[in-house]
Write a structure and sequence with these properties.
globular; mainly alpha; 135 residues
């Protein structure tokens, strides 16, 4: 079966969004940590670099899974992203977020995470596991 026949278009588009976000932002943060973490990030360049290369790796594996039509792997990667996104929001509220994030209303930030990440990731996981179990 081909990717187009097994993976719904909305999941393909959402996966491409994640790939661009993870590889693009990961690369940008690797080059200049202050892009995401503010001016003090240069001091912690090694941990920030670890964060960045892991994002890039997840994006690349997500692209490979999408290209191969591997629904179980893609669902697992969305589960990794869901867990990461939940913990990211917890960290934003319990830690010291960058000034750009701290300037956003907590209610708006939560709504963005829920609408853009949590709901779509859960729906994608459910649909991809359903497709995998149909095979």
């Amino acid at each position: 079966m081909t990717m187009a026949r097994t993976i719904p278009l909305w999941i393909v588009i959402y996966t491409i969004f994640h790939i661009v976000l993870e590889v693009g932002l990961g690369t940008a943060v690797w080059i200049d940590p202050s892009i995401q973490f503010g001016d003090g990030a240069a001091v912690a360049s090694f941990p920030v670099g670890l964060y960045a290369v892991r994002s890039i790796a997840v994006g690349i594996v997500m692209a490979a899974a999408l290209f191969a039509g591997e629904t179980k792997i893609l669902a697992s990667l969305f589960l990794v992203r869901l867990i990461t996104d939940i913990l990211d929001l917890v960290l934003v509220f319990t830690g010291s977020p960058p000034a750009a994030m701290a300037a956003v209303s907590p209610l708006l930030l939560t709504a963005i995470y829920v609408a853009l990440f949590y709901v779509l990731e859960i729906l994608a996981i459910r649909r991809l596991w359903g497709i995998a179990n149909e095979r």
